[in-house]
Amino acid sequence: MGTFFGRSSPYRLLAVFVLASLLMVILPAAALAAPAQSADTAPLAHGDWYVVQPGDTLSQIALRYGTTVSALMAANGLTNANHIYTGQKLKISGGSSGNCVAHHKVTRGQTLSGIAAWYGISAHSLAYANNITNYNHIYSGQSLCVPGWSAPAPAPAPAPSTGVWHWVTYGDTLSNIAWRYGTTTWAIMSANNLASANRILVGTKLWIPSGYAPPPPPPAGPKPTPPSPPAQVITGGPWTALYYNNKDLSGSPVDTRLDPKINFDWGTGSPSGAVNSDGFSVLWTSINSFDAATYRFTSTADDGVRVYVDGALVIDDWNIHPATEKSGEIALSTGSHTVQVRYFEDTGVASVYVRWAKK
After folding, report:
1. Overall pTM surpassing 0.90 (yes/no)
2. Of 198, 297, 329, 342, which cross-links 306 as Cys (Cβ 3.0–4.6 Å)?
């Protein structure tokens, strides 16, 4: 016995080697076997890197950080999307969290190309930074990551002896400013080294070379009543999500997870590696707190969607169509109520967005 466990025993070296080999095989599998974490407790990526936690899958990490499974695989040299392990360090690539230099809140009537032109970047760059595959799929209230943009340097102070300064305020346009001071848009652009007549920012100081003073302000009158603030949009959640590889929510789900909200634009892709890109369906369920009021529920989906509250059908849009907005109303009492959303994708582009607000 003393010889077997001695320092120079070849049997002891062999036992250590076998034990180390077994650990290398067992440990990677533990990441897939442990219970999944919710989005609220999952650790954040540090900079452009993320350390895999017990229960993580590549599709969950991609969803959490606004990127795709293929982008993560390419950035980390992975050949198997199902083979990640606890403690593995992944580079986050293709999402919108690491390269935002500004955030823009979409307002009614704005387009992706118009927002891109305002910030002096291409529509393609703006779409890529926000994982947008359909340039027409932006909506009022959406927050967009603006990549590679920085505020323009202030224009050098011109030397002419005649002229006035104007501070740009909300609602100003270069043509309106030129008309107000009796000059031309081109004259203001030349005096301030502006490359575009459509890009002036609130707070910018412009030199007006015409020499005209602005007209006197109108006489003071009663202050207009400010408009009522818009109703707060609520997306609920977290949502227990069951994904099926058929259009009628039948059989056993192929993927089960927690989605923080129902706001997806998969384009021609799929929700995860286990789900088909066409002909799939999803069942989301969430218990949410409500005040006593009438609520307006709204869905925007391509293709079919139904929304239930405590079993009552509020929105019924169960058919094949491009992204379409539908609404329904229901009066609720104070307390917790169960909201259920059913969705199916036929072929082509897939997207769904559900929210509600008090009337």
Report:
1. no
2. 342
